[in-house]
Amino acid sequence: MQNTAFTTAWRKGVIARYLTVAGATVDLTGCGDHTYYRCTGCGHGTHGVSVIERVARERAQGHAETCRALPRPTH
Ligand SMILES: [Zn+2]
């Protein structure tokens, strides 16, 4: 099985990662009251506005379950 979520090294600072239905990932960074998330498929995320970690995890997981954008190829 080829799956980028498991073969790609995690970016520095990523504390959690959710696999989307399309094979992209939603990466969580930061911690505590200053947690961020970003989808590698469509770019959806906090865009610099931090949320608490619990909310970030809930939103990241919810987005991962619905996002069908493919991850952008990395070079
Ligand atoms: Zn997405």
Spans of at least 5 consecutive residues whose pLDDT stays below 50 are none
Which small-molecule species are bound to the chains here? Answer: zinc ion
User: What Rg is obtained from the alpha carbons, in whole angstroms?
Assistant: 12 Å
Give the count of helical stretches: 2
Q: How much of the polypeptide forms β-strand, as a percent range?
A: 25-35%
Helix content: 10-25%
Strand order in space, largest sheet = 1-2-3
Largest sheet: 3 strands, antiparallel
Mean pLDDT across every amino acid position: 90
Q: How many DSSP E strands?
A: 3
Could you provide a short overview of the structure?
The protein has 75 residues and is of the alpha+beta class. It has helices at 4-7, 53-66, and strands at residues 14-19, 25-31, 34-39.
Structure description:
The chain has 75 residues and is of the alpha+beta class. It has one domain. It is built from two helices and three strands, in the order αβββα. The radius of gyration is 12 Å and the shape is globular. The model has no long low-confidence stretch (mean pLDDT 90). Zinc ion binds next to loops. The site of zinc ion has 7 residues, from loops.
Key words describing this protein structure:
single chain; 75 residues; alpha+beta; 3-stranded antiparallel beta sheet; globular; binds zinc ion
